[in-house]
Structures are given as structure tokens and as C-alpha cells.
Specification:
Structural class: mainly alpha
Shape: globular
Radius of gyration: 16 Å
Helix content: 40-55%
Largest sheet: 2 strands, parallel
CATH architecture: 3-Layer(aba) Sandwich
CATH class: Alpha Beta
Amino acid sequence: MGKRKTVRFYYSVGSRYSYLASTQVGKLERETGCEVLWRPLYSVDLYELRGVSPFEGEPVSGQYDWDYRRYDAECWAEYYGVPYKEPKGVVEFDPRLLARACAAADALGAVRPYSESMFEAIFAEGCPRSARRSA
């Protein structure tokens, strides 16, 4: 029997698409026998490495329009049969701090359950006040 395949799942806990992908990880593992390693990141760092953010200025394509992204996420959630509520006041979050918290959970061996809890709080429960940073 061969070695179990490993898939690295790079995600941002504040990303609706990362949330939607995270809801499919268990199915992927069951159907393929792979092991998914959760790797949190701060997506703004990726934009900085690239030298341009798709969210600044005019959208480079329709997929970066905020109304479209909400609608698209709602459609995918329905397709997957998972809860989805567009976060209200997501700008109240410090996404870098969320990424650091996920990295700390990774160091403690709890990255998956911690990240799943954060995704649920933000995207399934609709960003409850207890998950927001204080002003």
C-alpha cells in the first residue's frame, strides 16, 4: 500500500471562498483517502507579493464586484448544502490578527478545529458580536 497523499489547504479565515472550500475538506478526505493539511495565511501579504490587489480601484473583472461575490458565495453554499450568511461589518475584523490566531492554533495542534470554529462564527452565524474586535 502506498503512502497517503497530502493536500495543503492554504486559506484565509476571512475569505468567503476559503470558508466554502473548508466545508468540502472532509468529503475530499473521505473520497480520496488524502490528508489535508490546513495552512492559514493573510491574503493581503499575497497581494503585496504580487504588487497589485484585485480589490483596489476598478474591479479587473466582474468576479471582484462585491455584490457578485456575495451572490456567488450564496449560490455555492446552496449547492454544497451549507449555511452561509454574508458577514456584516467584516471591516471590523483585523484579518491579520485572525491569521495569526490560526497560526497559533496550528502551533498548538488545533488549526483545523479552531479555523472551522472561526469560519462558522463569521460565515454561518453571520459574524456574531463576540467574534468582532473591540473598537
